[in-house]
Design a protein that fits this description.
- By secondary structure, the protein is an all-alpha fold.
- It has a single domain, classed as 3 helical TM bundles of succinate and fumarate reductases (Up-down Bundle), CATH 1.20.1300.10.
- 74% of the residues lie in helices and 0% in strands.
- It contains four helices and no strands.
- Helix 1 packs antiparallel against helix 2 and helix 3 packs antiparallel against helix 4.
- The protein is elongated, with a radius of gyration of 20 Å.
- The model has no long low-confidence stretch (mean pLDDT 92).
């Protein structure tokens, strides 16, 4: 079957509207990458804190730095959203939230729960 060349092509990325399920899935993937990269920073901080009393004091002092606190807040926020989205994906693997009615609701819940986790992580870190 030959393809015709007069098919409509939308190259304006500002007009493309993703469904909420796609947005939730893309954020889940992005948070996975950020978690991978942030794990090195968190492990370095953990390693410093386990070097003895001096290392623990040094890690506590580093956490008083606003940049380190912001990175810690970001890591905890990303971890929380990724966890919630992962639970949703596990439920989908079991056959739940796969219908046209329930999938957007599950994605909305994931985004709202992620936002709540971001706020709670901010309260905890700051």
């Amino acid at each position: 079957m030959a393809m015709t060349q007069d098919r409509p092509v939308n190259l304006d990325l500002k007009t493309i509207r993703f469904p909420i399920m796609a947005i939730s899935s893309i954020i889940h993937r992005v948070t996975g990458v950020i978690m991978f990269l942030g794990a090195f920073v968190v492990m370095a901080l953990l390693g410093t804190s386990l070097d003895g009393p001096e290392g623990f004091a040094s890690a506590l002092e580093a956490m008083d730095n606003p940049i380190v606190a912001f990175c810690l807040w970001g890591f905890v926020s990303v971890l929380g959203y990724h966890f919630v989205a992962g639970i949703k994906h596990l439920a989908m693997d079991l056959g739940h939230f796969e219908t046209l009615e329930s999938a957007p609701k599950a994605a909305q819940f994931t985004l709202v729960a992620g936002a709540v986790i971001v706020v709670l992580a901010g309260i905890w870190v700051w």
